[in-house]
Amino acid sequence: MSNKLKILFIIESLRRGGKERQLIELIKQLVGRGYVITVVVFDSTFAYAEINGLNINILKKNGINLFKSIFKLFTIIKKTKPKIIHSWSALTTLLIYPAAKRYNVKLIDSIRYAKSIKPLSKKWFISNLAFLLSDRVVANSNAGLKTHHKVYNRKYKVIYNGYECHKKLQLSDIVELKKKLGIKKKYVVGMVATFHPGKDYKSFIEAGKKILEERSDVCFMCIGEGLQKSELENSIEEKYRSFFSFTGKRDDVESIIEIFDVGVLLSNINVSAEGISNALTEIMAARKPVIATNAGGNRELITNDKDGFLIDAFAVEQLANKIKLLIDNDNLRTEMGQLAREKIQHQFSVEKMVNSYLNTYQGLVR
User: CA-CA distance, 59 to 321, in Å (whole number)?
Assistant: First the structure.
């Protein structure tokens, strides 16, 4: 084990989120292979018990604490002697750069989004400075690289998110789960996302109401929490309320996905765009057909009309039509779902992700 690389990961938070989940999965796999891991985080809230036994350092990055934290990073690196520092945001890259430079440790920056950034904006300057100071920059989608007009080369790489298709899920019995959730309709269409301005739950709800004008055998599930949840829930007219289920935050999302007939993920492209969506990956791995906004990394995850559908942003009519097409065609749902599962197995597996990161790490220290 002593011959394995020592790797330090630095991230702003380990609350529940897409990049956080991917980092946890990467850490678990590396620890399982004998690598020595140190984690630096700037938030004391942990949503992942799996890493409680690791060397975790909690720092602060506000006011005078920022300077104390930068100084503490020197101490952490001197003590742990990592060969690689993998930062998961431009800001954390800038915070740890002085210590990485002092101790000659290779530094990797990350791009986990695919929304265009306004040139000369604050985020643009921070991101480009972080790129300049890093030895490698890893995006989780080609769309992410394009936001900064970068191309895949020796310094800039793309490593897709990984999902462990073969892990044993403790899936609840579907019939019992439907009873618990109060789902009584024949078909279930679900969207898993936080109620955040970057997600377009509004179009999802409007498409649902459009479908409900014609039929009453469909339930629309909204799985997630956020500041906009109450507002959107209250926007639904009384006659449609019973057809929508707002579950809030759930710890059994993978089980709930099993009751979906169709999965949806819509982005508000005026605010955000997906890199590679964990939610879509999980739904596809569960052999469910998906419908997503034609933006960001969704184009890399979904092959339109083959393992899912890509639709225009805010296109309520398009979404309603695609949902109706899928719920009215059992064979199409099954075929698309199977192709979706195969896509995740072959192109977005956790093993492929981990091996790609290890190749990147080892390439830097040779």
Answer: 49
- Integer Cα distance of 284 and 20 in angstroms: 20
Percent of the chain with pLDDT over 70: 99
Architecture (CATH level 2) of domain 174-347: 3-Layer(aba) Sandwich (3.40)
| CA–CA–CA angle 187, 189, 192 (5° rounding) | 150
| Region of poorest pLDDT, from 61-65, 174-178, 314-318, 347-351 | 61-65
Q: Does residue 180 have a pLDDT over 60?
A: yes
Give the Cα separation of 179 and 174 in Å (integer): 9
CB-based contacts of 333, cutoff 8 Å, min separation 6: 261, 262, 288, 289, 326, 327
**Which of the 8 DSSP states describes residue 46?**
B
- How confident is the model over 65-81, as a mean pLDDT? 94
Q: Do domains 6-162+349-365 and 174-347 have the same CATH topology?
A: yes
| Domain residue spans of the chain | 6-162+349-365, 174-347
DSSP single-letter state for residue 172: P
DSSP string, 272-332: ---SS-HHHHHHHHTT--EEEESSTTHHHH--BTTTEEEE-TT-HHHHHHHHHHHHT-HHH
Task: Tell me the three state secondary structure of residue 138.
Answer: strand
Q: Is residue 2 predicted with pLDDT exceeding 90? A: no
* pLDDT of 1 higher than 70: no
**CA nearest to 112, candidates 200, 192, 24, 18:** 18
Nearest-angstrom CA–CA distance, 109 and 88: 6
CATH topology classification for 6-162+349-365: Rossmann fold (3.40.50)
Phi, psi values for residue 113, rounded to 5°:
-145, 175
CB atoms within 10 A of CB 229: 18
Q: At what angle do helices 122-133 and 90-102 cross, to 10 degrees?
A: 30
Which helix (H) or strand (E) is 105 found in, with range? none
Residues above pLDDT 90, as percent of the chain: 83
Of residues 179 and 52, more confidently modeled: 179
